[in-house]
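User: Design a sequence. Structure:
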């Protein structure tokens, strides 16, 4: 699988984690901005061959890492197992998207050698 595919997988797993957090009762906006950014960038990565959506997806994932880590107590509060589990799913997805997005960006912007 390519780094683009892994980036999309990470974005979608992170999005599933956000939805699961919502179901588990975490207070958030009706339409979480991180969810929108990750889903839209995943769709753009899949639907186009443009290089820039990979960067947008990786940056959205970086923002989500910051959001997850700001609520660090949710990762370790096992009294609410649904919240903790969905937080770990969200973190795993966005960390995958950050790493794969970085690799996909490097691959996308690498110049091909000039051949005669």
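Assistant: Done.
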């Amino acid at each position: 699988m390519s780094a683009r595919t892994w980036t999309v997988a990470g974005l979608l797993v992170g999005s599933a984690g956000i939805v699961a957090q919502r179901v588990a009762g975490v207070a958030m906006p009706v339409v979480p901005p991180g969810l929108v950014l990750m889903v839209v960038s995943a769709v753009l990565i899949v639907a186009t061959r443009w290089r820039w959506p990979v960067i947008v997806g990786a940056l959205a994932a970086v923002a989500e890492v910051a959001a997850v880590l700001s609520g660090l107590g949710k990762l370790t509060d096992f009294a609410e197992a649904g919240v903790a589990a969905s937080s770990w799913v969200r973190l795993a997805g966005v960390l995958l998207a950050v790493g794969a997005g970085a690799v996909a960006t490097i691959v996308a912007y690498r110049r091909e050698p000039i051949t005669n």
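The CA atoms of residues 15 and 36 lie 9 Å apart. The two ends are 31 Å apart (CA to CA).
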